[in-house]
Amino acid sequence: MKIDIVHAHCEASALYAGLACKLTRKPIIGTYHRSELRYYQPTLKNKLSAWLLNHYIAISNERKLRMVNQLGINDKKTTTIHGGVELSEVPQPEGNATQAAKDKLALNGRILFSAGHLGPIKGHDDSIEALALLKQKSPKVLDSTHLYIAGDGAPQDYERLRTHIRDKGLEDKITLLGQVTNVMDWMQACDIFLQPSREEGFGLVFIEAGICHKPTLATQVGGIPDIIINEETGILVPPESPKVLAEKLDLLLNNDSLAQKLGEQAHQRTLDHFLLSDQIQKLEKVYRDQL
């Protein structure tokens, strides 16, 4: 087998493959995917991995800045390539797509949806706190609203969230779905996509929400602002701010026209900037430039 170029996708593979490519004089590219900020610290391992690469791919503009400023990577040798989606991934029922998806999943009322690992980094605890505040401030709004959280985690993550939900008296308002294989059905069924991540490298789920015409309530961290323009294609709040989250959630649940406008504009932004075919073309150009 003749290898023309190597593409590594974590710091460990970049280190070992980078050494092999140095010896064999093959070009190597590395993509930095990590959400956890410790992987962008200038440790010896991280700096050595970076030194071995010929070109670098960042998954968001914020992560590119960290790679340049914290790891000393050359800005001119770094390209931002986002994740992408295709229209073919979205269910296309006749008529009202949201209602059709709700019928398929046997759902009623206003649906909030989150999708992500159950660890603290995804901010599900902040969603629970926000719903508890909403229960106090606007109980009638919450009466017809239910939050479904899709994602897996360690046993202690499930226990932490279940205890939190129980302590806030929200057992009938929040459901932990566990790992699901039909995320796009749930995305299509929801009225608002809610994901207050405490840190996020990029966040494919946000463009999945956009392609489904969904308004998103998220946080101003990591790569999320690349996707969501605040108050234009969604609403962004500071991380770990349940009170502000509750206020913005109340706003969206009480303003259907605003929610619909944000969702439509999110859909158009996704078509303009985050189609998978466009990201593939960017990656192919990086490959060609290194050969």
CATH topology term of the largest domain: Rossmann fold
Instruction: Give the total of beta strands.
Output: 10
Helical element count? 13
Beta-strand content: 5-15%
| CATH top level label of the largest domain | Alpha Beta
CATH superfamily of the largest domain: Glycogen Phosphorylase B
Key attributes of the depicted protein:
single chain; 291 residues; alpha/beta; Rossmann fold; six-stranded parallel sheet
SSE layout:
Elements (H helix, E strand, L loop, with lengths): L5 E3 L2 H14 L3 E5 L11 H9 L2 E4 L2 H11 L6 E3 L16 H8 L5 E6 L8 H14 L1 H5 L1 E6 L4 H13 L6 E5 L4 H7 L2 E4 L8 H8 L4 E4 L4 H4 L7 E3 L4 H12 L2 H18 L2 H15 L1
Parallel strand pairs: 1-2, 2-3, 3-4, 5-6, 5-8, 6-7, 8-9, 9-10
Helix pairs in contact: 1-2, 4-8, 5-11, 9-12
Task: Describe the fold and architecture.
With 291 residues, this protein is α/β, with parallel strands linked by helices. It has 2 domains: 6-84 and 275-290, Rossmann fold (3-Layer(aba) Sandwich), CATH 3.40.50.2000; 87-273, Glycogen Phosphorylase B (Rossmann fold), CATH 3.40.50.2000. It has 13 helices and 10 strands. The protein has helices at residues 11-24, 44-52, 61-71, 97-104, 124-137, 139-143, 155-167, 183-189, 204-211, 224-227, 242-253, 256-273, 276-290; strands at residues 6-8, 28-32, 55-58, 78-80, 110-115, 145-150, 174-178, 192-195, 216-219, 235-237. Strands 7-6-5-8-9-10 form a 6-stranded parallel β-sheet, with helices on both faces. A 4-stranded parallel β-sheet has the order 1-2-3-4, with helices on both faces. Helix 2 links the parallel strand 2 and strand 3 (55-58).
